[in-house]
Design goal:
Length: about 180
């Protein structure tokens, strides 16, 4: 087989996947109680965050949250495309990732920690507690309610990743703030 034949097969397979994904979403996902939980996990945290965020530091906190979002989304796509896990209920049919978690819940949880705990020690303690809750309470609950399916993954693997994402995001945000202050 040559390159163009394989590329054509990949495109055809993606078209079949797209059609099956939309069909599955319409028949088994959209408007289920799990789907509504996903919608609530988008809307409610946004309102809570807007009420609690320090408006004087909103840009800094948002940059930190966007770093969390980009990291979580990248790792989520990598994991789901590598068949380490799967999401059985999606807000939108075309996304392989858990939109409410990657784009809303994780960034907001960690933004509130970042806002509250500026010192590294307290930040690390709070991030570790949240990572424990996410890996050993939230993820198992998502499996239990059939929103999340483990394929070649275990909850314990998620724990250090959650901590690492928060640490790297804080490091990058702090570095950006430092550079900004130097430039002024």
């Amino acid at each position: 087989m040559n390159n163009s034949t394989i590329t054509e097969q990949i495109i055809q397979t993606k078209q079949v996947y797209k059609q099956l994904s939309i069909e599955h979403w319409l028949k088994y996902e959209v408007f289920t109680w799990q789907w509504w939980i996903g919608i609530a996990c988008v809307v409610i945290p946004l309102f809570v965050w807007w009420k609690l965020v320090d408006k004087q530091r909103i840009l800094e906190i948002s940059v930190f949250g966007l770093l969390i979002n980009v990291s979580a989304s990248f790792l989520d796509v990598l994991g789901s495309e590598s068949l380490l896990w799967n999401y059985t209920i999606r807000i939108l049919p075309q996304t392989p990732l858990l939109f409410p978690v990657d784009f809303i819940l994780l960034p907001i949880l960690y933004m509130l920690i970042y806002q509250r705990y500026q010192a590294w020690k307290q930040f690390l303690i709070a991030s570790t507690i949240v990572a424990l809750a996410l890996a050993f309470v939230v993820e198992p609950l998502a499996v239990y309610i059939k929103q999340y399916q483990l394929i070649s993954w275990q909850f314990i693997y998620s724990f250090p990743i959650y901590i690492l994402i928060s640490i790297l995001s804080k490091l990058v945000t702090n570095k950006m703030l430092s550079r900004q202050e130097e430039a002024l």
